[in-house]
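help with this:

***
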Amino acid sequence: MTEQRTTEHRTTGEPAAGELPAGRQFTRRRLLGTAGAAGAAGLVVGGAGGAFGAATLRDEPAALASVGATGVPFRDGAHQAGITTPQQARGHLVAFDLTAGQTRKSVAALLRRWSATAEQLIGGRLETGDDQIAHDAGPNSLTVTFGFGGSLFPKTGLEALAPQALAPLPPFSADALDPARSNGDLWVQIGSDDPLVAFHALRVLQKAAGDTARVRWQMNGFNRTPGATPRPMTSRNLMGQVDGTNNPQPTDPDFDARIFVPAGGTARSPQWMAGGSYAVVRRIRMLLDSWDHLSVERQEKVIGRRKSDGSPLSGGTETTPVDLDKRDAQGAPAIAGDAHIRVAAPASNGGAAMLRRPFSYHDGIGSDGAPDAGLLFVCWQADPQRGFVPVQRKLDRGDGLSRFLRHESSALFAVPGAPGPGEYVGQRLLES
């Protein structure tokens, strides 16, 4: 894991804590469901009593809560949605492999179907193949993002157009990778604030693949539900740590240069990738039983931040820049030499940076009683050889947190820019 700052700003018109929107009334059928979206309806810890006291039980339907009403356009300007979109509560990561005999033409037909289907799903107007799983739901911040693996290019005769930046990631000493859950020809990332909406999109897109592609692997993840805290806050991971404080922000002057391929392409990324980005996907299991045996003080030293509020051990609040030169009262470094935030810091990696947008996962309890849980790590950058790779090499060699992590799968995908009006995702590659 590396540090990130998760942006949860949503222009949803949410009421203040403890308040109900004017005229909001609840039916008996929907009262519990609405209370589950506490932040969206104003029913939060400390304000629930007054809110329930003001609610009237009626048989009239209530309007969608703000979480359900939040929509994200299929195109985020020059980029696909799902990269800088605020993290959603539910995610599916799915890799597909082409079936035997597929061609560039059949892959183009698949991407045309997928793009049209995704746009219809996001707009709430699916025209064909709808099983009505999410028929009565709002958009719930649904996004669908498509990418291409390095193995796609030789299978479709497009080797000459494969980006140099898509070269296989180097091995790392801490890797314990499962090949069956790594790589893939095509990749789909689905995010939504409602699990049913996310599953619906997954189901429809999987059926739309038809005989062209088969699922290679699928991973399901989750994040904190928007509105679960009284104000937007940085998420916590399954270790209980505030996780995401130092992510690059879209307001940073060099954000686009670090995250997206520039217009015109580069020597390492052809023109068809302009406006796109590269996604590194890693399934990182957290050895939670070992971690939980550490004292809170020891956990904080491993990370370099206070567990309570995410503030750096060098002092200040969560957003205070980390002072790597700060000394404690005994003259020792306030941030230990192998602390995660020191090893992952851009200053320790020649300025290398990436946009982390992960999901947590929990796939059950093993026979030994240990949870199979951790992080579905997804990071975005204009060139993984200048973003992910140098940082992971440094972490691989000297991160104190690595003793409590196991990297179990890995993949890299080229995610092209958003299609223009009337285009489908990847058209500039597949019809070049």
In short: Residues 104-123 form the longest helix (20 residues). The two ends are 37 Å apart (CA to CA). The chain has 13 helices and 13 strands.
